[in-house]
Amino acid sequence: MERTHDVGLRPPRHRVDRRAPAWWTLQAAVLALPLPLVFGALYLFIPPARFVFVWLFLAFLVPGVAYMAVMPVWRYRVHRWEVTEEAVYAVSGWLWQQWRVVPLSRVQTVETLRGPLQQLFGLSGVTVTTASSSGAVRIKGIDRRIARDLVEHLTRATQATPGDAT
Amino acid sequence: MSRVGAGAAGDAGWRRLSPRLLLVNLGMLSGPLALFALTLLLTGAGLQALISLGSLLTTFLVITWIGTMRLLTTRFRIADERVELRSGAFFRSHRSLPVDRIRSVDIHAKPLHRLFGLASLRIGTGGQGSPSGRELRLGGVTRSQADEIRRLLLDRRDRARAGTRPSRPGEAGHGPIAETDWAWLRYAPLSLWGLGAVLIGVGTVARALGEMRINPLDLAAVTHLRDRFGSVPWWFGALMAVLVLLVTGAALSTAAFVEGWAGYRLEREGDDAYRVRRGLLVHRSVTLERRRLRGVELTEPMPLRWAGAARLDAVAGGLGSSEQNRSRRPLTPAVPRQEALRVAADVLTEERSPTETADLRPHPRVALRRRINRGLLTLAPLVAALPALGLWLGPAAVHAAWITALLGVPVVLALAHDAYRALGHGLRDRYLVVRAGTFARRTAALQCEGVIGWKITRSAFQRRNGLLTLGATVAAGDGCYKVRDVGVADGLALAEEVAPGLLAPFVERVPATEPEMPRAARP
Lengths: 166, 523
What we know:
The structure holds 2 protein chains of 2 kinds. Chain A is of the alpha+beta class. Chain A contains 5 helices and 8 strands; from the N terminus they run ββαααββββαββα. In chain A, the strands form 2 sheets. A 4-stranded antiparallel beta sheet of chain A has the order 2-3-4-5. In chain A, α1 (about 20-30) packs antiparallel against α3 (about 50-80) and α2 (about 35-45) runs antiparallel to α3. The model of chain A has no long low-confidence stretch (mean pLDDT about 85). Chain B is an alpha+beta fold. Chain B has helices at about 20-45, 45-75, 110-115, 145-160, 195-210, 220-230, 235-260, 300-305, 320-330, 335-345, 365-395, 395-420, 460-465, 490-500; strands at about 15, 75-80, 80-85, 95-100, 105-110, 120-125, 135-140, 175-180, 265-270, 275-280, 285-290, 295-300, 310-315, 330-335, 425-430, 430-435, 440-445, 450-460, 465-475, 480-485, 505-510. In chain B, the strands form 4 sheets. Chain B has a 7-stranded antiparallel beta sheet with strand order 7-6-5-11-10-9-8, sandwiched between helices. In chain B, strands 14-13-12-17-16-15 form a 6-stranded antiparallel beta sheet. A 4-stranded antiparallel beta sheet of chain B has the order 1-2-3-4. Chain B is flat. At the A-B interface, β1, α3, β4 and β5 of A face β18, β19, α14 and β21 of B. β1 of chain A pairs antiparallel with β21 (about 505-510) of chain B. Chain B: Keywords: Membrane, Transmembrane, Transmembrane helix. Chain B: It holds the Pfam family bPH_2. Chain B: This is Putative membrane protein.
């Protein structure tokens, strides 16, 4: 490879599912909304302390809503994945982004993981682990059937390579 | 040696733990018993004392009972291809471990065990982060038995792995690589560990006193001190306090060094293993398989770096969970840098240690700016908080703010420059060499074949400035070793050199005008 200053990593081929942003929004809401809701309720029920709670309410609501609005869209632009003959390649994150490459010959286990929220949207996540304690690649928010096929494909591909993958 | 594995099949060959364990159990009883007798002698038989000491004694009796039952019910044997362990009266367990799966056999001896010439064997199979259930423990065999079993197991394992290859190592293979040199003791006080321990201790005592509602200033010893020295100026008192803290910290560090590294010996065991033995009160013996060794890491905490010293750790797989890995990976204590490099070269069987860092490639200047920004961002809240305090404390706090800023900024700049100078990466004799860190400078050298994947991370700042952090994942040590803030082209080229063909299919040319390298979304 030439040492020029205009090389970069190309984005993997497949986007995550179209329903993923909705799932991330719901996830963000579960994380960001309870606290402002509590302060809102306190604002309604404790009139003498309203001047405190209105500020607390706003201080937690505004960043929370901004997070809910920005994060899912941004993530959807970033999250991508791809499986080639030799490797699994995935990109994730939004502010901090992560590119991961694991050769199929080093894959130890392949598993699917579906949280309750993901199930609600018919989504699924695939985790590909290696012998390294920080080597797992996670592809989240893809369609359930695609995930199933992916796991099957990866399992077959990794069984084809002998060795203990360290 | 044949005694241990005499019975190969059937019911024969089962052995018990050493009966001396009974003495150890009694030894555990002797402390509370002595206390009991002493209290009775001193106070007469107060009911309160009787009850508390009685309950203490009961606890120890129960522990001893459990220990005795374990001794009576535990049996182990080493058949040709497996180690077997049976234990338990109520919950019977029978575990067996194929010999060729053994990755490490460690000998460990607690002080009370040592008093009676006993030791524990830990037979490990684990990969990284495996549950502790994956190791087999023989707690309480005699020292000589422990050594014998260990040698036997490693021999059998090697034979099982290598087919019929005789694995008695050639004499050339044996021999120490490094041994304790008491001149190293001079580096011991430079460890900040002791100071931390003192601070934690002081904090704990203060909290305990607070819980008990005792004002430390009212204690007799303290009032006595205050009466004698109450008239000295405050700065003198503060200076003395700092001095006392530093001296106690240094003393503790030295004590910890002596405890941990007395009798240290790093030696070759045959052609494919190393063994580290060390410890004064607690004996540790760790066997590292060369097959599992992926590299070494040289650590130079700031005080040690100033003194020209360094520590050496192994980057190896199969050392257990990350906590176990931390206690098993040291190859040397703080030793002169040259000595650490020599040991590194010896262990990796190279001419020169790949961690010699004369010609590492530096990182782009933008990385320096990132370090300066980070330092200033850490300093800013402190400086900003002081004038805010000034609302209560008056103008003195504002003065404190600008003085802090004036002193803090040069310190931050110096640290940032040091951190930037520490950054470096390179490829040397099939080793990926990575260096970073200012408070603790770490230089890791990893075998390229050990790299089993890439983890590239980029923050918004890094994306704007054409940097990336290239993480090499390995099935050993900390799991991921990072080349921080390297230029995009340099980083990708390095990845290609280390593991040819792995990243290449995903690298493309981008128009040079666009610094935002991986445009994630394209229609």
